[in-house]
Records
---
Amino acid sequence: MTDARKIALTWKIHESLKAEGFDITGIAQASPHHEDSQHISEWIGAGKNGTMSYLERNLDKRGDITTLVEGAKSVIVAGLRYYSNEVPAGEDNYFVSRYARVKDYHVVIQEKLDRVQKIIKKEVPDAVSRVFCDAGPLTEKAWAIRAGLGWRGRHSMVINKDIGSFFFLGEIVTTVEFLYDDTSARDRCGDCTLCTEACPTGAICEDRTIDARRCISYLTIEHEGELPEEFRGLTENIIFGCDRCQEVCPWNNKAVPYTDKELAPEIPVTSLTRTDWLNMTPEDFKKTFKMSPIKRTGYKMIRRNIDFINYSSPEKG
Ligand code: SF4
Ligand code: SF4
């Protein structure tokens, strides 16, 4: 491919991603990064993945992206902001993480990137590409950093200096070559430790990873079985996820609410009162969260999380 063609194609892809509503985009050269699988195995070795044993699979693939798409040359990374600032959960509500107040991002991002993938195919008919969004053995944060989208904050999320950290990530791994954004964003956390101090359960580790066994987000969404007694009272009014470490981050002070219409939920989760949640039957739950990431966690686990709170403060049940 000539340089001129590569420049034109790169521009076209960035523009197509913008047209799909993505706020930040970047392209990294696809090459093996065995340090990714090394970091994950150390994290798993320390037991910090909790009951998420699925993360133990395909560790070798995490370190070599060309095992996911043979002959891969590029990793296109796109970020879509999902911040919202509705009235925070009060006495009569439970807290649901912002990312779950919008439509299931797996679906929304997949559809958007599928459309961009078609554009690549049209431009380069023999291209082989694959879309990822929080699924499959792709180290999303590491690739977002390599593509210049931001840096890894102390709370482990990727932060972009313009839009903060409330954004979803999606990727297209492709055999097509582009111009690469190889300027990694510099670490702008400095001496700040606000997230570490705000974390109710001390889940943020020195090495900027999270000990899932202590993280309320993991505990309320992924953890199987009863919630550990040591966290009783610490989950406050949270029944799904936890945004505390992101809420206190100065880089989110100017976070702008999302505007992408495809993210708009069918039912505003923040409008549900405690009584609504408590009266919800399994059938209501299925219907209400048909298009929401909350459905993956399921009725039983959400009820478990509610009971865990109510037992801590029965007067609010
Ligand atoms: S999501 Fe909540 S519990 Fe998890 S690290 Fe952040 S503040 Fe701590
Ligand atoms: S709160 Fe401070 S230390 Fe934590 S991620 Fe944000 S800037 Fe970094």
---
Amino acid sequence: MIDPNGRVMMVSGANRGIGAALAERFHSDGWALSLGARNREELEESVTRWGDDNVRCYHYDALNSSTADAWVEETLSDFGRIDGLTNNAGVGHMESLSDLSEEILDEMWSVNVKGPLRLIQRTLPHLASCGEGRIVNVVSLSGKRVKGTFAPGYAMSKHALLALHHAVRHATFEHGIRVTAICPGYVETDMTASFGVDPSIMIQAADLAETVATIVRLPNTATVAEILMTCEPEVLG
Ligand SMILES: NC(=O)c1ccc[n+]([C@@H]2O[C@H](COP(=O)([O-])OP(=O)(O)OC[C@H]3O[C@@H](n4cnc5c(N)ncnc54)[C@H](OP(=O)(O)O)[C@@H]3O)[C@@H](O)[C@H]2O)c1
């Protein structure tokens, strides 16, 4: 297994939900962390209890491409390297087909697809130069199937993210970069709070993080392309 000590992982949307759980788990494994969020002050507040100089917080808004440039540049300036990128930040609008506006779709396309593409493109040379770069794309089961009439725009954006994921996986393999898509069903976070689904049957973000933390430490000879994690019976089709 790869030793995370001395390696730098970037995590987007690390202030709450799945991103916060991933950051916490990576931190306990010894990764140095470059965390990005829209509200940098709030993010800094949430990690002060760790009291760790190897955890730094940066402003990242997927709707503003210059923040992606600055986040990558500042990470390199502060840490001198980038070994991992976790594309977690995402937005989920659950409008039905008839209510799905172009504005809503544009926002999901920008945050869920263009944001990860931008960060991947900016970090690739650095992930390649370390020889064991890791990319985690937090997709969704909504990137694998369309569940009845549920959230078609969200599913469109997550299908596009999964296509990007596989394109990156193929393009970077020879450079030692291993790319994993995480495709969970319901996870108990703010995103699912209004779904009317019993939270007690949902995946816990900490359990998802435990799985991801293991995958990113696997050697280059054991790559995991996709993880499908569900908390309920899934009917595909
Ligand atoms: N919860 C689920 O059931 C589930 C299932 C499958 C996949 N996912 C995916 O998991 C990821 C995390 O979701 P979550 O469940 O943890 O939801 P969440 O609690 O709503 O968190 C969403 C995160 O994305 C960030 N974000 C939203 N828009 C952004 C933007 N324009 N720029 C930068 N960051 C932005 C949020 O930042 P702010 O705090 O600033 O809003 C927050 O950190 C998403 O990609 C989501 O699609 C979730």
